[in-house]
Amino acid sequence: MATAHVLVIPFPAQGHVNPMMLLSRKLVKYGFKITFVNTEIIHERVEGALDSLVDSNINLVSIPDGLGPADDRNELGKLCEAMLHTMPEKLEELINNINASNGDDKISCIVADAGMGWAIEVGNKMGIKGAVFWFAAAASLALQVSIPSLIDDGIIDSDGIPTQKQVIQPLPGMPAMDTAYISWYRTGDSACQKIFFKYTQQYMQNLKFADWWLCNTVHELEPVTFSLAPKLLPIGPLMSSKHTEDSVGQFWQVDHSCLNWLDQQQPCSVVYVAFGSFTVFDPTQFKELALGLELTNRPFLWVVRPDIIDQSRNAYTKEFQGTRGKIVGWAPQTKVLNHPAIACFISHCGWNSLIEGASNGVPFLCWPYFADQFLDRIYICDVWKVGLGFELDENGIVLREEVKRKVDQLLGDESIRARSLELKKMLMNNIADNGQSSKNFNNFIQWLKA
Protein backbone atom coordinates (compact mmCIF):
# COMPACT_ATOMS: atom_id res chain seq x y z
CA MET A 1 0.00 0.00 0.00
CA ALA A 2 1.30 3.46 -0.93
CA THR A 3 2.27 5.90 1.83
CA ALA A 4 -0.55 8.35 2.56
CA HIS A 5 0.30 11.71 0.99
CA VAL A 6 -0.80 14.83 2.86
CA LEU A 7 -0.71 18.36 1.41
CA VAL A 8 -0.12 20.99 4.11
CA ILE A 9 -0.74 24.68 3.40
CA PRO A 10 -0.12 27.45 6.00
CA PHE A 11 -1.09 31.11 5.87
CA PRO A 12 2.04 33.01 4.67
CA ALA A 13 3.31 34.27 8.03
CA GLN A 14 6.01 32.99 10.39
CA GLY A 15 3.54 32.25 13.20
CA HIS A 16 1.53 30.03 10.85
CA VAL A 17 4.34 28.26 8.99
CA ASN A 18 6.11 27.21 12.23
CA PRO A 19 3.36 25.14 13.89
CA MET A 20 2.32 23.58 10.59
CA MET A 21 5.91 22.48 10.01
CA LEU A 22 5.91 20.94 13.51
CA LEU A 23 2.64 19.19 12.65
CA SER A 24 4.15 17.96 9.36
CA ARG A 25 7.19 16.52 11.14
CA LYS A 26 4.89 14.72 13.54
CA LEU A 27 2.95 13.23 10.62
CA VAL A 28 6.20 12.04 9.01
CA LYS A 29 6.98 10.05 12.18
CA TYR A 30 3.76 8.15 11.56
CA GLY A 31 4.81 7.26 8.02
CA PHE A 32 3.11 10.01 6.00
CA LYS A 33 4.59 11.85 3.04
CA ILE A 34 4.13 15.65 3.13
CA THR A 35 3.91 18.23 0.37
CA PHE A 36 4.33 21.56 2.18
CA VAL A 37 2.95 24.45 0.12
CA ASN A 38 4.15 28.00 0.77
CA THR A 39 3.68 31.11 -1.32
CA GLU A 40 6.67 31.79 -3.59
CA ILE A 41 8.01 34.63 -1.43
CA ILE A 42 7.75 32.61 1.80
CA HIS A 43 9.26 29.57 0.09
CA GLU A 44 12.34 31.61 -0.85
CA ARG A 45 12.70 32.91 2.70
CA VAL A 46 12.32 29.47 4.27
CA GLU A 47 14.88 27.92 1.92
CA GLY A 48 17.25 30.88 2.45
CA ALA A 49 17.17 30.44 6.23
CA LEU A 50 17.80 26.67 6.22
CA ASP A 51 20.95 25.50 7.98
CA SER A 52 20.05 21.80 7.88
CA LEU A 53 18.44 19.34 5.50
CA VAL A 54 14.67 19.02 5.41
CA ASP A 55 13.31 15.54 6.11
CA SER A 56 13.21 13.62 2.83
CA ASN A 57 9.50 12.93 3.37
CA ILE A 58 8.71 16.66 3.45
CA ASN A 59 8.71 18.26 0.00
CA LEU A 60 8.78 22.09 0.06
CA VAL A 61 6.91 23.57 -2.93
CA SER A 62 5.35 26.94 -3.76
CA ILE A 63 2.57 28.67 -5.66
CA PRO A 64 2.17 32.42 -6.37
CA ASP A 65 0.17 34.62 -3.98
CA GLY A 66 -1.02 37.02 -6.70
CA LEU A 67 1.11 40.01 -5.63
CA GLY A 68 4.08 41.46 -7.46
CA PRO A 69 7.70 41.30 -6.20
CA ALA A 70 7.64 44.89 -4.93
CA ASP A 71 4.25 44.69 -3.15
CA ASP A 72 4.21 44.97 0.65
CA ARG A 73 2.95 41.66 2.04
CA ASN A 74 2.57 43.17 5.50
CA GLU A 75 -0.50 44.93 4.09
CA LEU A 76 -2.80 42.09 5.08
CA GLY A 77 -5.86 43.38 3.23
CA LYS A 78 -4.06 43.53 -0.09
CA LEU A 79 -2.42 40.13 0.51
CA CYS A 80 -5.68 38.38 1.41
CA GLU A 81 -7.52 39.77 -1.63
CA ALA A 82 -4.72 38.69 -3.96
CA MET A 83 -4.48 35.20 -2.44
CA LEU A 84 -8.22 34.58 -2.72
CA HIS A 85 -8.17 35.69 -6.36
CA THR A 86 -5.09 33.69 -7.40
CA MET A 87 -4.24 30.76 -5.15
CA PRO A 88 -7.27 28.41 -5.37
CA GLU A 89 -6.72 27.87 -9.10
CA LYS A 90 -2.94 27.52 -8.63
CA LEU A 91 -3.42 24.98 -5.83
CA GLU A 92 -5.75 22.91 -7.99
CA GLU A 93 -3.14 22.94 -10.78
CA LEU A 94 -0.44 21.85 -8.33
CA ILE A 95 -2.54 18.95 -7.02
CA ASN A 96 -3.41 17.81 -10.55
CA ASN A 97 0.29 17.87 -11.52
CA ILE A 98 1.31 15.90 -8.42
CA ASN A 99 -1.44 13.34 -8.92
CA ALA A 100 -0.65 12.94 -12.63
CA SER A 101 3.05 12.29 -12.02
CA ASN A 102 2.96 10.19 -8.85
CA GLY A 103 1.02 7.10 -9.84
CA ASP A 104 -0.41 5.63 -6.63
CA ASP A 105 1.15 8.41 -4.56
CA LYS A 106 -1.71 10.87 -4.99
CA ILE A 107 -2.70 13.57 -2.49
CA SER A 108 -5.03 11.82 -0.06
CA CYS A 109 -5.74 14.69 2.35
CA ILE A 110 -5.32 18.47 2.65
CA VAL A 111 -4.44 19.95 6.04
CA ALA A 112 -4.97 23.69 5.68
CA ASP A 113 -4.38 26.58 8.00
CA ALA A 114 -7.85 27.89 8.87
CA GLY A 115 -6.74 31.20 7.35
CA MET A 116 -6.40 29.31 4.06
CA GLY A 117 -9.83 27.72 4.40
CA TRP A 118 -10.45 28.10 0.67
CA ALA A 119 -7.93 25.22 0.19
CA ILE A 120 -10.36 22.85 1.94
CA GLU A 121 -13.04 23.92 -0.52
CA VAL A 122 -10.66 23.22 -3.41
CA GLY A 123 -10.02 19.74 -1.99
CA ASN A 124 -13.72 19.15 -1.45
CA LYS A 125 -14.36 19.94 -5.13
CA MET A 126 -11.59 17.48 -6.11
CA GLY A 127 -12.86 14.73 -3.83
CA ILE A 128 -9.95 15.06 -1.36
CA LYS A 129 -10.75 14.93 2.35
CA GLY A 130 -9.60 17.81 4.52
CA ALA A 131 -8.72 19.02 8.00
CA VAL A 132 -8.17 22.58 9.19
CA PHE A 133 -5.54 23.67 11.65
CA TRP A 134 -6.55 26.57 13.90
CA PHE A 135 -3.50 28.78 14.41
CA ALA A 136 -4.45 30.62 17.62
CA ALA A 137 -6.27 30.20 20.93
CA ALA A 138 -9.51 28.22 20.84
CA ALA A 139 -11.08 31.35 22.36
CA SER A 140 -10.09 33.28 19.24
CA LEU A 141 -12.01 30.80 17.09
CA ALA A 142 -14.99 31.01 19.43
CA LEU A 143 -14.92 34.80 19.02
CA GLN A 144 -15.02 34.43 15.25
CA VAL A 145 -17.82 31.87 15.45
CA SER A 146 -19.80 34.53 17.33
CA ILE A 147 -19.46 37.17 14.55
CA PRO A 148 -23.12 36.86 13.42
CA SER A 149 -24.42 37.38 16.97
CA LEU A 150 -22.00 40.29 17.54
CA ILE A 151 -23.50 41.95 14.45
CA ASP A 152 -27.09 41.12 15.48
CA ASP A 153 -26.48 42.56 18.97
CA GLY A 154 -25.10 45.79 17.49
CA ILE A 155 -21.65 45.31 19.06
CA ILE A 156 -19.95 45.43 15.65
CA ASP A 157 -21.19 46.68 12.29
CA SER A 158 -21.24 44.70 9.04
CA ASP A 159 -17.57 45.63 8.43
CA GLY A 160 -16.55 44.17 11.81
CA ILE A 161 -15.90 47.59 13.37
CA PRO A 162 -17.07 48.07 16.98
CA THR A 163 -20.02 50.45 17.15
CA GLN A 164 -18.70 51.87 20.41
CA LYS A 165 -15.86 51.34 22.87
CA GLN A 166 -17.18 48.99 25.55
CA VAL A 167 -16.28 45.91 27.55
CA ILE A 168 -18.06 42.79 26.34
CA GLN A 169 -18.19 39.10 27.18
CA PRO A 170 -18.28 37.61 23.67
CA LEU A 171 -19.61 34.24 24.83
CA PRO A 172 -20.69 32.82 28.22
CA GLY A 173 -17.67 31.72 30.23
CA MET A 174 -15.16 33.69 28.19
CA PRO A 175 -13.29 36.54 29.91
CA ALA A 176 -14.52 40.08 29.38
CA MET A 177 -12.65 42.09 26.76
CA ASP A 178 -12.56 45.62 25.39
CA THR A 179 -14.06 45.89 21.90
CA ALA A 180 -10.96 47.87 20.91
CA TYR A 181 -9.02 44.58 21.13
CA ILE A 182 -11.21 42.42 18.88
CA SER A 183 -8.69 40.56 16.71
CA TRP A 184 -9.81 41.58 13.20
CA TYR A 185 -10.02 45.19 14.39
CA ARG A 186 -6.27 45.19 15.16
CA THR A 187 -4.90 44.41 11.69
CA GLY A 188 -3.99 47.78 10.16
CA ASP A 189 -5.83 50.84 8.88
CA SER A 190 -9.61 50.91 8.39
CA ALA A 191 -9.45 49.78 4.75
CA CYS A 192 -7.28 46.79 5.71
CA GLN A 193 -9.56 45.95 8.64
CA LYS A 194 -12.63 45.82 6.40
CA ILE A 195 -10.95 43.57 3.83
CA PHE A 196 -9.50 41.29 6.50
CA PHE A 197 -12.88 41.01 8.23
CA LYS A 198 -14.50 39.89 4.95
CA TYR A 199 -11.65 37.41 4.48
CA THR A 200 -12.25 36.13 8.02
CA GLN A 201 -15.96 35.63 7.31
CA GLN A 202 -15.04 33.78 4.12
CA TYR A 203 -12.64 31.33 5.74
CA MET A 204 -15.06 30.72 8.61
CA GLN A 205 -17.58 29.62 5.97
CA ASN A 206 -14.98 27.30 4.42
CA LEU A 207 -14.47 25.45 7.72
CA LYS A 208 -17.69 23.53 7.09
CA PHE A 209 -15.89 21.57 4.34
CA ALA A 210 -13.36 20.16 6.84
CA ASP A 211 -13.81 16.80 8.55
CA TRP A 212 -11.48 17.75 11.42
CA TRP A 213 -10.64 21.01 13.21
CA LEU A 214 -7.27 20.73 14.94
CA CYS A 215 -5.70 23.29 17.27
CA ASN A 216 -2.42 23.79 19.10
CA THR A 217 -3.78 23.97 22.64
CA VAL A 218 -5.04 21.67 25.41
CA HIS A 219 -8.54 21.29 26.74
CA GLU A 220 -7.74 22.43 30.29
CA LEU A 221 -6.33 25.76 29.10
CA GLU A 222 -9.70 26.89 27.73
CA PRO A 223 -12.34 24.40 28.88
CA VAL A 224 -15.33 26.70 28.38
CA THR A 225 -14.30 27.50 24.81
CA PHE A 226 -14.36 23.85 23.79
CA SER A 227 -17.96 23.54 24.94
CA LEU A 228 -18.74 26.43 22.56
CA ALA A 229 -16.80 24.91 19.62
CA PRO A 230 -17.19 21.14 20.13
CA LYS A 231 -15.77 20.23 16.72
CA LEU A 232 -12.39 21.70 17.71
CA LEU A 233 -9.85 19.05 18.73
CA PRO A 234 -6.79 20.04 20.81
CA ILE A 235 -3.54 18.29 19.84
CA GLY A 236 -1.08 20.63 21.58
CA PRO A 237 1.34 21.62 22.64
CA LEU A 238 3.17 21.07 19.35
CA MET A 239 6.84 21.14 20.31
CA SER A 240 10.09 20.61 18.45
CA SER A 241 12.22 17.96 20.10
CA LYS A 242 15.58 18.76 21.69
CA HIS A 243 17.19 16.87 18.81
CA THR A 244 15.37 18.75 16.05
CA GLU A 245 17.00 21.66 14.30
CA ASP A 246 15.06 24.91 14.63
CA SER A 247 15.86 26.29 11.17
CA VAL A 248 13.23 24.45 9.08
CA GLY A 249 10.26 26.77 8.58
CA GLN A 250 12.04 29.89 9.83
CA PHE A 251 12.12 33.14 7.82
CA TRP A 252 15.44 34.36 9.27
CA GLN A 253 18.69 32.53 9.86
CA VAL A 254 18.83 31.27 13.43
CA ASP A 255 21.72 32.58 15.56
CA HIS A 256 22.77 29.68 17.80
CA SER A 257 25.51 31.70 19.55
CA CYS A 258 22.96 32.81 22.14
CA LEU A 259 22.82 29.25 23.54
CA ASN A 260 26.52 29.38 24.44
CA TRP A 261 25.96 32.81 25.99
CA LEU A 262 23.05 31.43 28.05
CA ASP A 263 25.30 28.63 29.30
CA GLN A 264 27.45 31.30 30.96
CA GLN A 265 24.54 32.91 32.85
CA GLN A 266 23.18 32.06 36.30
CA PRO A 267 20.04 29.89 36.55
CA CYS A 268 16.76 31.84 36.28
CA SER A 269 18.55 35.16 35.70
CA VAL A 270 18.01 36.13 32.05
CA VAL A 271 15.15 38.25 30.69
CA TYR A 272 14.28 36.88 27.24
CA VAL A 273 12.78 39.49 24.89
CA ALA A 274 11.18 38.54 21.56
CA PHE A 275 8.28 40.02 19.61
CA GLY A 276 7.72 37.58 16.77
CA SER A 277 7.82 38.32 13.07
CA PHE A 278 5.30 41.19 12.68
CA THR A 279 5.87 43.62 15.56
CA VAL A 280 7.30 47.00 14.55
CA PHE A 281 8.44 49.70 17.01
CA ASP A 282 8.75 53.41 16.50
CA PRO A 283 12.29 54.59 17.39
CA THR A 284 11.18 56.28 20.64
CA GLN A 285 9.58 53.11 22.02
CA PHE A 286 12.49 50.96 20.88
CA LYS A 287 14.93 53.20 22.75
CA GLU A 288 12.80 53.23 25.92
CA LEU A 289 12.71 49.43 25.89
CA ALA A 290 16.49 49.25 25.40
CA LEU A 291 17.11 51.66 28.27
CA GLY A 292 14.57 49.82 30.42
CA LEU A 293 16.35 46.52 29.89
CA GLU A 294 19.65 48.14 30.90
CA LEU A 295 17.94 49.67 33.93
CA THR A 296 16.89 46.23 35.22
CA ASN A 297 20.56 45.46 35.82
CA ARG A 298 19.85 41.89 34.76
CA PRO A 299 21.26 39.90 31.83
CA PHE A 300 18.90 39.93 28.84
CA LEU A 301 18.67 38.12 25.52
CA TRP A 302 16.87 40.28 22.96
CA VAL A 303 15.74 39.16 19.50
CA VAL A 304 15.96 42.22 17.23
CA ARG A 305 14.91 41.58 13.64
CA PRO A 306 16.55 43.88 11.07
CA ASP A 307 13.12 45.36 10.27
CA ILE A 308 11.79 45.76 13.82
CA ILE A 309 12.00 49.59 13.84
CA ASP A 310 9.43 51.51 11.79
CA GLN A 311 10.87 53.08 8.61
CA SER A 312 14.24 51.45 9.20
CA ARG A 313 15.90 48.31 7.93
CA ASN A 314 18.79 48.51 10.37
CA ALA A 315 17.66 48.02 13.97
CA TYR A 316 20.33 45.47 14.72
CA THR A 317 22.90 47.54 16.57
CA LYS A 318 25.31 46.83 19.40
CA GLU A 319 24.73 50.19 21.06
CA PHE A 320 21.52 48.83 22.62
CA GLN A 321 23.24 45.75 23.98
CA GLY A 322 24.60 47.55 27.05
CA THR A 323 26.94 45.76 29.40
CA ARG A 324 24.76 42.77 30.30
CA GLY A 325 22.79 42.03 27.15
CA LYS A 326 23.03 39.80 24.11
CA ILE A 327 21.24 40.79 20.89
CA VAL A 328 20.55 38.36 18.03
CA GLY A 329 18.62 38.73 14.78
CA TRP A 330 16.62 35.51 15.29
CA ALA A 331 16.83 32.88 18.03
CA PRO A 332 16.19 29.13 18.35
CA GLN A 333 13.27 30.03 20.60
CA THR A 334 12.23 26.57 21.79
CA LYS A 335 15.77 25.85 22.96
CA VAL A 336 16.09 29.30 24.53
CA LEU A 337 12.88 28.94 26.54
CA ASN A 338 13.95 25.48 27.66
CA HIS A 339 17.27 26.82 29.00
CA PRO A 340 17.61 26.96 32.82
CA ALA A 341 19.05 30.50 32.64
CA ILE A 342 15.74 32.01 31.44
CA ALA A 343 13.82 33.88 34.16
CA CYS A 344 10.95 35.42 32.17
CA PHE A 345 9.73 36.18 28.67
CA ILE A 346 8.85 39.70 27.44
CA SER A 347 6.57 38.68 24.57
CA HIS A 348 4.15 39.99 21.96
CA CYS A 349 1.80 37.19 23.12
CA GLY A 350 1.59 35.43 19.78
CA TRP A 351 -0.04 32.03 20.33
CA ASN A 352 3.04 29.99 19.36
CA SER A 353 5.26 31.98 21.72
CA LEU A 354 2.65 31.64 24.45
CA ILE A 355 2.52 27.86 24.05
CA GLU A 356 6.33 27.57 23.92
CA GLY A 357 6.81 29.73 27.01
CA ALA A 358 4.04 28.04 28.99
CA SER A 359 5.34 24.58 28.03
CA ASN A 360 8.64 25.50 29.66
CA GLY A 361 7.16 27.03 32.81
CA VAL A 362 8.33 30.55 31.93
CA PRO A 363 6.31 33.55 33.26
CA PHE A 364 5.38 36.36 30.88
CA LEU A 365 5.53 40.12 30.56
CA CYS A 366 2.93 40.93 27.92
CA TRP A 367 3.44 43.44 25.11
CA PRO A 368 0.77 42.62 22.48
CA TYR A 369 0.96 44.29 19.09
CA PHE A 370 -1.49 42.77 16.65
CA ALA A 371 -4.73 40.82 16.08
CA ASP A 372 -5.44 38.04 18.62
CA GLN A 373 -2.42 38.89 20.81
CA PHE A 374 -4.59 41.18 22.97
CA LEU A 375 -6.96 38.31 23.76
CA ASP A 376 -3.95 36.12 24.60
CA ARG A 377 -2.77 38.76 27.07
CA ILE A 378 -6.12 38.54 28.90
CA TYR A 379 -5.64 34.80 29.35
CA ILE A 380 -2.02 35.13 30.50
CA CYS A 381 -2.67 37.92 33.00
CA ASP A 382 -6.27 37.49 34.13
CA VAL A 383 -7.23 33.83 33.60
CA TRP A 384 -4.09 31.76 34.11
CA LYS A 385 -2.29 34.50 36.10
CA VAL A 386 1.17 33.57 34.78
CA GLY A 387 2.21 37.05 33.71
CA LEU A 388 1.81 40.80 33.95
CA GLY A 389 1.09 43.56 31.44
CA PHE A 390 2.79 46.91 30.90
CA GLU A 391 1.14 50.28 31.55
CA LEU A 392 1.37 52.96 28.84
CA ASP A 393 2.05 56.63 29.59
CA GLU A 394 -0.18 59.43 28.25
CA ASN A 395 1.62 59.24 24.87
CA GLY A 396 1.08 55.49 24.52
CA ILE A 397 4.69 54.65 25.39
CA VAL A 398 5.98 52.00 27.80
CA LEU A 399 8.63 53.98 29.66
CA ARG A 400 11.99 52.57 30.74
CA GLU A 401 11.02 52.81 34.42
CA GLU A 402 7.88 50.76 33.72
CA VAL A 403 10.01 48.05 32.08
CA LYS A 404 12.22 47.83 35.18
CA ARG A 405 9.23 48.00 37.55
CA LYS A 406 7.39 45.13 35.89
CA VAL A 407 10.46 42.91 35.54
CA ASP A 408 11.19 43.38 39.25
CA GLN A 409 7.54 42.76 40.18
CA LEU A 410 7.26 39.60 38.08
CA LEU A 411 10.50 38.06 39.26
CA GLY A 412 9.72 38.94 42.86
CA ASP A 413 6.37 37.11 42.79
CA GLU A 414 6.86 33.44 43.64
CA SER A 415 3.15 32.70 43.14
CA ILE A 416 3.40 33.60 39.42
CA ARG A 417 6.43 31.31 39.06
CA ALA A 418 4.55 28.50 40.85
CA ARG A 419 1.49 28.86 38.59
CA SER A 420 3.75 28.88 35.53
CA LEU A 421 5.27 25.55 36.59
CA GLU A 422 1.80 24.09 37.21
CA LEU A 423 0.77 25.20 33.71
CA LYS A 424 3.84 23.48 32.27
CA LYS A 425 2.95 20.26 34.07
CA MET A 426 -0.59 20.35 32.72
CA LEU A 427 0.59 20.96 29.14
CA MET A 428 3.21 18.20 29.28
CA ASN A 429 0.71 15.71 30.71
CA ASN A 430 -1.42 16.22 27.61
CA ILE A 431 1.29 15.04 25.25
CA ALA A 432 2.38 12.11 27.43
CA ASP A 433 1.54 8.69 25.96
CA ASN A 434 -1.84 8.55 27.66
CA GLY A 435 -2.52 12.30 27.56
CA GLN A 436 -5.68 13.70 25.99
CA SER A 437 -3.89 15.58 23.20
CA SER A 438 -1.96 12.41 22.31
CA LYS A 439 -5.21 10.42 22.16
CA ASN A 440 -6.79 13.08 19.96
CA PHE A 441 -3.81 13.08 17.62
CA ASN A 442 -3.82 9.28 17.39
CA ASN A 443 -7.51 9.36 16.45
CA PHE A 444 -6.66 11.87 13.72
CA ILE A 445 -3.88 9.58 12.45
CA GLN A 446 -6.29 6.65 12.23
CA TRP A 447 -8.68 8.80 10.18
CA LEU A 448 -5.84 9.86 7.86
CA LYS A 449 -4.89 6.23 7.28
CA ALA A 450 -8.45 5.09 6.65
Automatic annotation (TrEMBL):
Record-linked InterPro entries: Glyco_transf_N (IPR058980), UDP_glucos_trans (IPR002213)
Keywords associated with the record: Transferase
Pfam families noted in UniProt: Glyco_transf_N, UDPGT
Keyword Transferase: yes
Domain named Glycosyltransferase N-terminal: residues: 5-45
Keyword Transferase on entry: yes
Matches recorded under CDD domains: GT1_Gtf-like
Record GO terms (molecular function): quercetin 3-O-glucosyltransferase activity; quercetin 7-O-glucosyltransferase activity
Similarity comment text for this entry: Belongs to the UDP-glycosyltransferase family.
Name of the protein this chain belongs to: Glycosyltransferase N-terminal domain-containing protein
Native source species: Quercus lobata
Lineage of origin: Eukaryota, Viridiplantae, Streptophyta, Embryophyta, Tracheophyta
